[in-house]
Write a structure and sequence with these properties.
A hairpin with a 2-residue loop joins strand 9 and strand 10. The two termini are 29 Å apart. Helices cover 48% and strands 19% of the residues. It is of the alpha/beta class. Belongs to the aspartate/glutamate racemases family.
Length: 259
């Protein structure tokens, strides 16, 4: 049986990377819905339609678990998916709770970087309202980072000017924690780090999702029955050309370097 990791694009590879570190002997499918990326700029109704169609395809691949490695898709479709399928469906959400806990100790604020749709969603606002008792959480939509990642653009010469422009209205010294609230954003952790004070923490929700996956599979006695295979799909089409496969391997290697 397989573990499927789903995202609108390559951002979900940041979660796949964490899962493979914790559960190396599993068989994985990584599914990027590249026909419809980016989700964060689309309507809630369209995103839900895309996610449900992809999940139907993945459910036919003999799954033991489905990981929705996309904050936007989680916010709009996770409950529908859990009602529809008998296998565990895990989502991801911006790591607001640990961020607020860390920043309150420092008497600092939290900046959540995410997609526009994630920041607009009721699920996100309910999360902030539940945790942010002192009104220290700010949000910033960064669709340009998704576009950069999907084009395999990671050079600081191109990324830093975009980040500097978007962050210009903020006093960066006020923030104790930055939350990378889109799974594409950890690819740019080094660039974000260069712009904030060295004591600012930069976190994301990928490791928490991977740990939750390991816990759930352990409770179901379903750990370690694979052979460590990994298959890639782009919107239901299996990736078999060597150039793309090499690109994907380079992305996983980049994530190793960012740890």
């Amino acid at each position: 049986m397989k573990i499927a990791v789903f995202d609108s694009g390559i951002g979900g590879m940041t979660v796949l990377h964490q899962a493979m570190k914790l559960l190396p002997d599993e068989d994985y499918i990584f599914y990027a819905d590249t026909a419809h990326v980016p989700y964060g700029e689309k309507t809630k109704e369209d995103v839900k339609k895309y996610v449900l169609e992809a999940a139907d395809f993945l459910a036919a691949q003999n799954l033991k678990a489905l990981v929705i490695a996309c904050n936007t898709a989680t916010s709009v479709a996770i409950e529908d998916l859990r009602q529809k399928f008998s296998f565990p469906v895990l989502g991801i959400e911006p790591a607001v709770k640990p961020a607020v806990q860390q920043s309150e100790k420092k008497r600092k604020k939290v900046l959540v970087m995410a997609t526009r749709l994630t920041l607009k969603e009721v699920k996100f606002h309910q999360l902030v309202e539940r945790i942010d008792k002192h009104d220290i959480v700010d949000g910033l939509a960064l669709p340009g980072l998704v576009a950069f990642a999907e084009k395999f653009i990671f050079s600081e010469e191109q990324v830093l000017p975009y980040l500097e422009e978007q962050l210009e209205p903020f006093d960066l010294k006020e923030y104790g924690t930055v939350v990378l609230g889109c799974t594409h954003f950890p690819f740019f952790k080094d660039s974000v780090r260069k712009l904030f004070p060295k004591e600012t923490d930069i976190i994301d929700g990928g490791i928490g999702t991977a740990r939750n996956l390991k816990r759930i599979l352990g409770e179901r006695h379903q750990i370690g029955d694979g052979t460590g295979t990994l298959s890639y799909y782009k919107s239901s089409v299996k990736v078999e050309d060597q150039e793309t496969l090499v690109h994907y391997q380079e992305l996983l290697s980049r994530l190793d370097e960012l740890q």
